[in-house]
Amino acid sequence: MKINTATFVISNTDVSKCPAEKIPEYAFIGRSNVGKSSLINMLTNHKKLAKTSGKPGKTQLINHFKINDEWFLVDLPGYGYAQVSKSKRKTFQSFIKDYFLQREQLVCTFVLVDSRHEPQKIDLEFMQFLGENGIPFAIIFTKADKLGNSALNKNFTKYKKQLLKTWESVPTHFITSSESAMGKEDVLKFIEQINTDVAEDFIK
Questions:
Q1: CATH number at 8-17+25-202
Q2: What are the sequence ranges of the domains in the chain?
Q3: What pTM was estimated for this model as a whole?
Q4: Tens digit of pLDDT for each residue in 79-108?
Q5: How many angstroms separate the CA atoms of 131 and 150, rounded?
Q6: Residue 13 CA from chain centroid, whole number
Q7: Of 6, 1, 2, which Cα lies nearest the Cα of 69?
């Protein structure tokens, strides 16, 4: 898949105000500072589509971007909001949960995980939430360029071992780097295949 256009549509904290258009939707979410904005910009070939920041918790809204006039990319607030107040955390958790449980156009969620770290409880708990609610997801391991192959394989093996305690098989996953564009084609090909598979569900 080649992304020719990526257009910002709307930001809000109310799932009922998300775009009504019936096209496939892909959500991107992960812990704060996981490299989500950089990954989105890399995938879409737009350096400033999603706002990047050295300060965790930059994304605080449900952000919809229309891609190729065919599908929506949704940039969601991170969880584990390092420097965000407790009152805001509760608000985030509420509308994020509403989004996942109510958004009918959502066909896949990409859970971003920092490949430099061992399995984190909060990531595993979020995947469990998606699984328990029948929400399809894939895992994107970010920042792979920051590790050597040996360390990368070691961390992935630990993740695999942890995931297999809960899942029958390891969920679909991708190894990526926003710096080198590693994994870009694989993620976009995956989205393209899902768009094809669900096309009949979105006939206008």
A1: 3.40.50.300
A2: 8-17+25-202
A3: 0.90
A4: 754 444 555 555 456 788 889 999 999 999
A5: 30
A6: 17
A7: 6
